[in-house]
TrEMBL record, chains A, B:
Pfam families: Amidohydro_1. One of its GO terms (molecular function) is hydrolase activity, acting on carbon-nitrogen (but not peptide) bonds. This is Amidohydrolase family protein. NCBIfam families: PRK08418.1. SUPFAM superfamilies: Composite domain of metallo-dependent hydrolases (SSF51338), Metallo-dependent hydrolases (SSF51556). The keyword Hydrolase applies.
C-alpha cells in the first residue's frame, strides 16, 4: 500500500548530492514519486502521510564491506601495523569464530540502528547467512577464497560451498565471490574463482594493497612477507604469487569487482583498475586502515582515476564499532579534504556509490528505486549548506527505517 | 580512611608511561603507596581492598581546555572553515548562552562519566562556576578577556569580575585568566590581563594560531581578518594588533601559560614559546581543529620544540562530544604517527601533561599525588604491549572514580 513521508530536509543522494527542504516521497515497495511534501499530499489526498520536523529523510545506507564472522572480537588482534595484525589474526582468529552467533546478531542490529539497509558481507564459513536471511537486511554475501598454493581439492570444496550459498539466494540475499588478497591467493586458484564468478554472473570482491608490506611483496617479492609463508602457513613459496599489481588487476578484466582498501595503490594502479576492469568500485574502511597500516585512501588519486569510493565498516576484526555512522565520522577525521566537500563524498559513499558497488537498486531517492528509506530526528533544523555535515556529525540512531517499503524500525 | 584498589592493568602515567600488571594503590586523600597488589594486601592486611579483574586502573583524566558556556550548541555554528565558524559564533553565540545551566550540568556529568576529574574551563560569564563548585570536579576557571580596542572601563569591569571569581576559590576551584587570541585582544589590554595574572599568581591560557586566517593576519595584517573588525565588530582597526606571532608570545615571558591549538605555529614560534615563556604548555583539541581549520597539530614539531601536549575537548561550540575518551580517539584518527606511540602521547596528554598544564598535583599514580583514580572494566584482559591502545579504543564509561580519595562513581 502506498504512503507518503516527508521531512524538513531530504537528501536525494543523487549524482549532484541534492539537499531539498520540506520534501517528500510517495512509495510502496518502490519509490513512486518524489516532490514537495505539501504538493504530494494534495496530489494523493487519500494516502497516509507523515511529515518529520527537524529531521532528515535519506536513502537507507549500504555497508558494502564487512566481516560478520569476526563480530566476537574486541582486543584479540594487534593494532598498529598490518603485519602485526595479520600475525595475530592467524594466531587468534580461530577462537574468535567460536560461538559468534550472538555477536553476529548484535552486529546485524547495529547495522539497522545506524540506518543500514544493505550489506556486503565477506564470509568464510557462511555462519552469518541464515541470520542475515532472518533479518530485514538485504545482503550480498561474498564467499571468500583463501589459499596460497594450488589445490584442486580445495577448489572443489569451495565450489560446493558456493553452491550451498547459491541455493540460499532469494530476493534479499545474493551470492557472490571474494578473492581474499594478492598475498593469499595463488593465481590459478584466483583465476578459477573469477571464472566461477563469470559463469554464475556473480559480483567479486578483493582486498587490495591495504599495506606497505603487501605492496612491497606484490611488486618486488620483498619485505615482511618473505617469511610469512613459511612462518605462518608452513609453505615454501618465497616469491610473490603475482608479477606485480597489474598482473593481479588484469585477472578481473571482465568482471564486476569491489576493490577494498587500496591505500597503497599508485595512481597508475588505480587507472589500470578503471581501464581494465569492466565494473570496478573502490571501498574504503577508514577506521580499519587507521588501526592497521595507518594510511588513509588518497581521495585526490581516486578522483583522478575516475573511480567512485564507498565507505564501509570492515569487521570488528579491525574496528570498534559497526555503526556506519561512526565509520563516516572516522572518514571525516582521517581525510584531509575541505570538510563540506568530504561530507558529500562520505554521504554518497554510504548510499549511491555503495548501491552501485553492490549492484542494488537503492541508495538514492528517485522514482523506481527500492523504497529503502531512513529518517533521523534532531532537536533542531540544520541550515541547508551545513546539513550533510551536521547530519554526519550528529546522527546516532535511525528513528524510522523502511526497507522495500516495509517499516522495520 | 585508607584503602587499597588494584587492577589487572595499571597505567602509572609517569614519564616512562609504565604499564604494570596486577598492581595496586594504597590511598586516602593522597596516594600512599603503589606496588604489586598482593604484596600491598599482605603489607596492609587491615585495609579494605578491592581488585578489578579485566580492568585498567589509571589516574583520573584532566581535560585542560573546554568552554562549558557553549554546552547548549548542537548545530548553530558553521563548520568547515575557521572564518565561517567565527562569523557564525558572532552571529549566533548569544542565543546559545541562554538557559545553558542544564546543558552545563550534562557537560559536567559527561566529564565524570568519561573519567575526567579535573577541568580547565574557559569562562566569559562565570555561568558554570557554581555548577562546578557543586560538582566533584576540580576546576581551574580561566576568566577570558576579549576586546580588540583599548578601554579602561572594560578592563576595570574585567578586574571586578576576576575578583568575583577569586572570591569563589577553594580547594577544588582555582581562578585563572585567559587572553582570548591575538586577533581579538588589543596589546595594552592583553598586557594588563597578563600583569593581573602575575600579581595574583594565576595561570594563563590563550588560543593561539588555530587557523591560517589568524596566521596570515598576525604575521602580515592580510587576509580574511582585514574585513573582520569592521564587519563584525564595527571597529576601524585594519591592522593586526601585534607585530607578528613573536610579539604576542613575548608578552607571556614570566608566566605559566597554556597555548591552545597552535596548528599554524611554525617550529620557530614553538621554540620561541619554549624559550621565552617561563612555564609553557600546549593544548590540542583535535575534533575542534578538524571542524574549523581542518589542520591537526604537528606532533613532530612540538617534540622538536621540547613542548608537552595535552589533549582536550574544547567546548560543544566546536565538538559533538565532551567525553575526553571520544576526544582521545579523535586524536588517534587525526594524527599520522605510528599508532602505539601515538596512544602513549594521547594517554599522557590526558593525564600527566594535563596536570602539569593546570599545575595540579594529580594525573599520575605516584605516592603523594592526589588520589584521583579511575577504573575501567572490560570483558577481557588486554595484552601489555597493546594495553594503552586497546584501552583508548574501547573505554566508554568509567566504572569507578575516586577524586581526592573519595568515591564519586
Amino acid at each position: 500500500m502506498q504512503e507518503i513521508i516527508g521531512a524538513s530536509l531530504v537528501f536525494l543522494c543523487n549524482e549532484k548530492c541534492e539537499v531539498l527542504e520540506d520534501y517528500g516521497v510517495v512509495f510502496d515497495e518502490k519509490i513512486v514519486e518524489v516532490g514537495d511534501y505539501k504538493s504530494l499530499t494534495l496530489k494523493y489526498p487519500h494516502l497516509k502521510a507523515q511529515f518529520f520536523e527537524n529531521s532528515v529523510l535519506l536513502p537507507a545506507f549500504i555497508n558494502a564491506h564487512t566481516h560478520f564472522e569476526f563480530s566476537n572480537n574486541k582486543a584479540s588482534f594487534d593494532y598498529g601495523s598490518f603485519s602485526g595484525w595479520l600475525g595475530s589474526v592467524l594466531n587468534n582468529g580461530g577462537a574468535i569464530l567460536e560461538n559468534c552467533q550472538g555477536a553476529i546478531q548484535n552486529a546485524i542490529s547495529a547495522q539497522l540502528k545506524s540506518g543500514v539497509g544493505s550489506v556486503g558481507a565477506i564470509s568464510n564459513h557462511l555462519i552469518e547467512v541464515n541470520l542475515l536471511k532472518e533479518s530485514p537486511l538485504s545482503a550480498v554475501v561474498f564467499l571468500e577464497f583463501l589459499g596460497s598454493s594450488y589445490s584442486l581439492e580445495k577448489l572443489k570444496a569451495f565450489e560446493a560451498k558456493f553452491k550451498e550459498l547459491k541455493d540460499l539466494e532469494d530476493k534479499k540475499l545474493k551470492a557472490a565471490l571474494a578473492v581474499h588478497a594478492p598475498y593469499s591467493v595463488q593465481k590459478d586458484m584466483a583465476l578459477s574463482v573469477i571464472q566461477l564468478a563469470k559463469d554464475s554472473q556473480s559480483l567479486l570482491s578483493t582486498h587490495f594493497l591495504e599495506s606497505f608490506e603487501e605492496l612491497e611483496w606484490v611488486e618486488n617479492s620483498k619485505g615482511w612477507f618473505e617469511n610469512f609463508y613459511q612462518h605462518f602457513l608452513k609453505e615454501s613459496n618465497f616469491k610473490s604469487l603475482y608479477k606485480g599489481a597489474n598482473d593481479y588487476i588484469d585477472m578481473f578484466e571482465d568482471t564486476h569487482t569491489l576493490f577494498v582498501h587500496n591505500q597503497f595503490a599508485s595512481l597508475e594502479a588505480l587507472k589500470r583498475i578503471k581501464s581494465q576492469v569492466k565494473n570496478a568500485f573502490l571501498i574504503t574502511c577508514p577506521f580499519s586502515n587507521r588501526l592497521l597500516s595507518g594510511q588513509a585512501l588518497d581521495l585526490e588519486r581516486t578522483k583522478e582515476a575516475g573511480l567512485s569510493v564507498s565507505v564501509a565498516t570492515d569487521g570488528l576484526s579491525s574496528n570498534i564499532s559497526l555503526s556506519l555512522l561512526d565509520e563516516l565520522r572516522a572518514f571525516l577525521l582521517t581525510h584531509n579534504m575541505p570538510l563540506l566537500e568530504l561530507a558529500k563524498i562520505a554521504l554518497l559513499g554510504a548510499t549511491r556509490h555503495g548501491a552501485k558497488a553492490l549492484a542494488l537498486n537503492n541508495g538514492e531517492i528517485e522514482a523506481n528505486k527500492r523504497a529503502d528509506l531512513s529518517v533521523f530526528g534532531f532537536g533542531e533544523k540544520f541550515i541547508k549548506e551545513q546539513a550533510i555535515l551536521q547530519f554526519l556529525l550528529h546522527a546516532k540512531e535511525v528513528e524510522r527505517l523502511f526497507l522495500g517499503g516495509k517499516r522495520v524500525i
